[in-house]
Every structure is written in structure tokens, then in C-alpha cells.
Amino acid sequence: MIVEKxxxxxxxxxxxxxxxxxxxxxxxxxxxxAEQRLFCDGNGVIEKLSPAMSVLLEHFLKAxxxxxxxxxxYQIMGKDLEEYSLDSFYKMIERFRKxxxxxxxxxxxxxxxxxxxLILPLDPTDMN
Length: 128
Fold this sequence. Notes:
single chain, 10 strands, disordered C terminus, five-stranded antiparallel sheet
């Protein structure tokens, strides 16, 4: 599975409690820490994502087949379909693709019908 969750100790008023980390493996040595909004590799932090990009990436990672429709993306980004231009939407998608490409082999593909799928290297669902 792509999602790696671990219980991490966290101190709160002299008590130790465990919290679940939201860390996702994107490929062999690249991880995304959703809580901290960080791309990381074996050497440490690569890049911090904007809040919007971080939320969008986590939704793709959680989605069935890593696929979201244009409408779902609008909802995730907190945009109203009538008020958010198509041009702005495509620019945001292109920025998202560039950010993914900059730090990983993860890609974002459009099905041509308004759905987008996050393609992870060696994703078991892509192996036929």
C-alpha cells in the first residue's frame, strides 16, 4: 500500500500520547508528509508544498485509483464552478504537475473527460 502510517509519540502536558503520521510513499525513496506539507527523500526535506498543493496531493493519494474528477478538485480547492475560470483551473493543474515532476517520477494524467489520475511509479494497480 502507498500510505505508510505509524504511531509517533507526542508530548502534551507531561503525558505521552500517540498520533498517526500522514506520510505517503510516492516512490522508492520519495515521501510526502501531509502534516508538514513536505516532500522528503532519504537525505531529508526536498521541498515544502503550499497548503493548496498539499491538500490536493493528499486527496489524490487517498482517492480510489488515485483519481479525482474536475468537480471534486474544485470542491477540494474550495472553488465554486461558476466563479473559477477554466483557464485558472488548467493553470493550477499545470503548476501541480510541474511540482510533482520537479521532485518525483509521479505524474498526473487526464482521461479527457474531466477526471485526473495520479500515476505513481510501480503502482500495483498499473501492473497488468
